[in-house]
């Protein structure tokens, strides 16, 4: 689950919890014959009885609910970054995987090996590996190709050369 999905799910769950508690309080107050606490439900009831499906406010609320539902559905169905990537089997019927973070760490080590690289950031996705190397050199020259070669070589050692494509960028800066 991505961070955005987790935050949205938490906020939606909190809103539903608070709304449910508020509904319980309002129902208990109505059953006891007391005035509403926060929700003026007698006013809402009279307003809602005057509305029909032809009303602009009702249509706008329905369209808003449909759009919100579709947005939440798309966010829930969207695939995130994999937690683990499958490695090629060296023994038949044995399935091995490597954590995405472990692959990022080993590729970061490979990317910082060439001379001139101060630091590197690596993000592994399903099909690509994004490497951002930082250098303090004024003229990086062929540093990008050397970093690409080091990362590609490490991917070959892992057996992921055909699965993951490296995309390397080199920038001048202090790194992290």
Task: Name some characteristics of this structure.
5 helices, DUF6286, 176 residues, 18% strand, transmembrane helix, two-stranded antiparallel ribbon, alpha+beta, Alpha-Beta Plaits, DUF6286 domain-containing protein
Structure report:
- This is DUF6286 domain-containing protein.
- The chain crosses the membrane at residues 57-77.
- It comes from Geodermatophilus poikilotrophus.
- Keywords: Membrane, Transmembrane, Transmembrane helix.
- Residues 67-170 form the DUF6286 domain.
- It contains five helices and five strands.
- The strands form two sheets. The chain has a three-stranded mixed sheet with strand order 3-4-5. A two-stranded antiparallel sheet has the order 1-2.
- Helix content is 51%, strand content 18%.
- A hairpin with a 3-residue loop joins strand 3 (117-124) and strand 4.
- The two termini are 26 Å apart.
- Among the domains are: 1-35; 100-172, 2-Layer Sandwich (Alpha-Beta Plaits).
- Helix 4 (100-111) crosses helix 5 (143-158).
- The model has no long low-confidence stretch (mean pLDDT 88).
- It has 176 residues and is of the alpha+beta class.
């Amino acid at each position: 689950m991505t961070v955005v999905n987790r935050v949205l799910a938490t906020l939606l769950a909190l809103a539903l919890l608070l709304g449910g508690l508020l509904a319980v309080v309002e129902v208990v107050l109505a059953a006891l014959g007391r005035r509403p606490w926060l929700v003026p439900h007698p006013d809402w009831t009279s307003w809602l009885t005057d509305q029909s499906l032809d009303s602009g406010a009702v249509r706008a609320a329905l369209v808003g609910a449909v759009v919100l539902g579709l947005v939440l559905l798309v966010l829930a169905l969207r695939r995130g970054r994999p937690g683990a990537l499958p490695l090629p089997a060296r023994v038949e019927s044995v399935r091995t995987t490597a954590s995405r973070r472990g692959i990022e760490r080993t590729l970061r080590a490979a990317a910082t090996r060439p001379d001139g690289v101060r630091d590197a950031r690596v993000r592994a996705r399903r099909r690509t590996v994004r490497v951002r190397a930082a250098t303090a050199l004024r003229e990086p020259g062929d540093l990008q190709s050397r970093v690409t070669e080091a990362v590609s070589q490490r991917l070959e050692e892992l057996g992921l050369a055909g699965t993951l494509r490296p995309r390397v960028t080199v920038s001048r800066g202090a790194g992290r």
